[in-house]
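Quick one:
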Amino acid sequence: MNRTVIVMAALLGAAGCNMASEEDRLENSIREELGKQGTVQEVNLTRQDENNMVGYATIREHSGRSGRLNCTAQRTEGANFNWRCSPAIDQAVLDEMEGQIRTQLAQQADVAEVSLERAGDDNHMAGYVVVREGGGETRVPCTAERTEGANFSWRCGEETETGGAK
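Output:
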């Protein structure tokens, strides 16, 4: 009798180890797909309700750039989910974009300051640049908008050309 209980417990334990949660299966799916872009360092999803999960992934791209992606998943039917991971605008992204704007504008003017912040979502940034001209300083509004993947186009004032990709 004891032997039967031990065998049953072992079988149930082994079965439990093979049954991954929906979060685990979805995290593995995301890890596998993002692995095509580079080394996935972490994927973490949290269930919001029966049909929705949110979280993030961190990845080191083949180019060497590391970044965080914000992820969402919505149940489509049964155990199936549609998921999306988009690059997050964090301090590193803001600093990189500010540096790009500074470099580009420095070819045209004396740049005293560049400041950007996330504007509403992970596809938009807004801020300003301060340029020195003729002994004075002028503050000019700037915006940046995601064009594709981790790339942004930017614009400062009305006369500044759109900048290149981040």
